[in-house]
Every structure is written in structure tokens, then in C-alpha cells.
Amino acid sequence: MPKYWADEVRELMKDQKWLIALAHAAAATGWVKLLNFWGAPKPFVLSAWLGGGPAPGPDVADVHLLNLEPPETFMDGIKAFERALEELPQDAVQAIRDWDPEGSARVLGPFYARAHDIDGRAYLGGRPLAWQALEDKTSVDELWDLAGIPRSDSKVVVVSEESLKHAHLEIDQGLGTVQAADSREGFHGGASLLRWVQTPEQQSEALELFTPVADRVRVMPFLEGIPCSIHGMVFPDQTISFRPMEMVVLRRPSSSKLLYARAASFWDPPFEERESMRKIAKVLGEFLRERYDYRGVFTVDGIMTADGFRPTELNPRYGAALAVMTGPMGIAHELVFLNYLLVEGSLLKLSAGRLEEEILEFADTTRSGRVGFMHPEKPPGLESTDLWLKRDKGVWTESDEEFADVRVLLDPAEAGTLINIHFTPNTPIGRSVAPWTCEICTWLDERFKLNIGPLEPAKDVHQARSELERG
User: Fold this and answer.
1) Given this model, what pLDDT does residue 115 score?
2) Which residues form a coiled coil (predicted)?
């Protein structure tokens, strides 16, 4: 793929000194490799934990760990790290100043970072508060309506037993309701403050979850179909959009909790639905720029139902699925840099239309799947494991890399076991990877005693309908 625009980004960034602030040091490895490749000054990595996988060594980066208490959940970790950055211990501050005595460094933070600084060093691409507020799941339906985007019915209520009960009964279409908290305590993702309520007992559990952290909750019907997302990218003169991505969201039998396990691009919706999703992203991008002066990447998450795509939330930031899509192209980190430059209002010479065409063409012909999650348990004696698996007649067995369908990585971490499943080009194109993910987790339970438990995939209602029509 031509990297003319990546060369422009490199020229703008390569002489800058970078402080990489990510919760897990292992997550900084890719950034450090890129900056070293560019010939940039040796970066400084500031992290709360080591994380799963290899972290940058002292020969390529200065690494300072805050060594916070291990978080119980993904979102707990995000918030703990954000709080720590606001009140850094003196040894961390001194380490940064020793590395950057002139104070000229910029900060590379996570995609959800807001516009602030670390000891006077500003974030690149930090988001204004007005943009962050768009992520509130209790106000996004008003935005869909203003932008003219079709959506499902919903109801926003105060957090109380009576209001949630009535909203559930009013909105339920037979499969229960999905209830999501507001952003009173900051943004939330990964289904952390979201519950699929089907029984009175699950409603009581949801109320217990919401009461200490939210004022309002959005209640909408549970929609059967593939969870998916579409990314848009807002430039000064136009909005471009990419291909739909499957969000691998797994169900736990008899539980209201959903397991978010990242994304893959093997699944294809019907062509007319694909184009409808891409149009939604472009319409919304123009609306966001006109109304909020928005710039850069955003993501619309939703469900591909039998009646078409129905949006459920807006992520006014770079989406993790876009990194999965662009990873095989070798441009994932450069595209994040490009996004940050757009957010900051930098004038770039590249053609947005050409960028859209090139990414679409590559992403449609080169599929990718990076599925995984942090499992809260860590079996005694478990070591980092790297293995290849092949599926034959519904049975998974270890395989040579050449014939494998997936690569599985297990890495013990502070909060449990980091599970990563990388789908190879042998994976069938067109279908959801969620069923295979569930099968692999069952295999991992049997082999490594991880105690993940039974998981179920979402149903591809369009695939089922096509098979029914074919007889």
C-alpha cells in the first residue's frame, strides 16, 4: 500500500521527543519500535503496570512503572491510571524531568485521552470536553435524531427500581432490554456499565450496579444480530468512511453480563447494508463537524438486525477496531498519528479521498481478526504460551503454523490472564468469528483450566435468512 501520507506524518513527528503514557508498558512496544525506526529521540514510557507481553527494553526506551494495585476490570484500570497521571508521585515527576530537562516533549496517550498535560507536557490530539460528552449513552439518541439516522426505540430514566422496571416492560420486544449507564463518572466501554436484562433478578443486579455510578440509564430493546461498527474520519473538507467491522461480543448463559472481545473484519453484511453503514458514518461526520467543529476519527457501534443496522452508541475517538483493520497494512500507528494531527487542526497535504480508497481496497482483500480479553483468573503455574490451532470437522487441535486457523497467546498479567486469538488468512471470509471464538475458549478451558466458562455467539440473522432461502 502506498505510504505517501505516512511519510508526511513521519516528517512532522520524527524529531519530536515523546512521552508515551499508556496503562500497560507492553502496549507501548509498537510505538517505541516505530519511533526508533523513524530515528526519533529515545522515548520515555510511563505506565501503571507491566501488562501482558513484552515491554520495551532499556536500550530502546526509558520505562517508569507506577506499580498501582491490579484493577478488577478493564475500566477500573483506565480510571486508576487517569487518576494517577493527575497526581504523579515525585519519583515519577523527577524521572520525567531527568529525561526531558528542557520540557519540550509531547505526550502520546491512549485514544480516549482528554486535552491535558503531564508535568507541563501537552498531549498530542487530546480531545475537548465537548467531544468527550458525545459518548454519553443516555444522550446519543437525540444526536441520531438530529442527524437523521434511523434508530431503535429507547427510553432514558432516572436510576430507581420503579423507573427501570417500567421502562423495561415498555421497551422489551421479547428478548429483554439492554440498559446502559450515563457518563457521570466518565466514559465507559467494553460493556462494563451495560447489562442485558431478561429477568427480575437481573434487573435487581443492574440496579445495584447503576446506583452508585449513574444518575440516568438508557433502556433499549435487546436487538438480535451481529454487533458491528463503522468508522468515519472527519477532515476539514469531507468525511471518509471505511468498511464495517464485527465487534466480538459474547454472551454468558443465564447472565446479564456481556463479554467484549475486540474485533475482526472477516464478517460481511449484505452489500446494501454495508453501504448504508458507510453512508451513516459520512452523514454523521458532516453533522459533527458543522455542529461541534469535530475533527478526526469516530466510531458508530450498533447491531446488524434483520431490519438493517441500528446504532447503539457513538465513540467520539479512535476505535480499537480500526487498528485491527489497518494492522496488516503496516500503517496502524501512523494512522493514529494522522488522527491526532487532525484533532489538533494541523494542515495536511494528503488527499482524504485517496486515503479512503486505499484503505478500503486493502481492508476488503486482506482480512484480520484480533480477538481477546483480560480473563480475571490466573491458574497457578501458567506461563506465557504461544500456540497454533486448526479446526477440523468442528474439533480444535494444535497445528503447525502453515496449516493453522488461529494463533493463541496467553500471557499472565497483574489482573489475570491476557488471552489473544489472532485469526489467520485460513479463516473463512463472510462469516462471524464469534462461534470459533467460543469454541476456542472452551478448548482453552479444557487444556489450561482457565475457568472462562460457557460462552455463546451473537446470531447472524442475515446469514440464517440466506441459508433458509437457499433451502
Assistant:
1) 65
2) none
So what's the pLDDT on residue 216? 98
Enumerate residue ranges in the chain where pLDDT < 70: 1-4, 115, 464-471
By the 10 Å C-beta count (0-12 exposed, 13-18 middle, 19+ buried), 129 is classed as: exposed
Angle, helix 332-343 to helix 29-38, in steps of 10 degrees: 80
**339 domain residue, yes or no:** no
Rounded Cα gap, residues 445 and 304, in angstroms = 30
Q: 66 and 433 in contact (C-beta within 8 Å)?
A: no
For 123-193, where are the E strands, in sequence order?
155-158, 177-181
Rounded to 10°, the helix 4-13/332-343 angle is: 60
Query: Residue 417 region, left (φ>0) first, then alpha (ψ -120 to 50), else beta?
Result: beta
Determine the longest span between alpha carbons in the chain, in angstroms: 71
Whether residues 84 and 160 fall in one domain: no
Find where cell 458532516 sits.
286
Alpha carbon dihedral 138, 140, 143, 147, in 10-degree steps, equals -150
Question: How many folded domains does the chain comprise?
Answer: 3
Please give the DSSP secondary-structure letter assigned to residue 403.
G
Look at strands 44-47 and 385-392 and give their pairing. unpaired
299 residue type, one letter: T
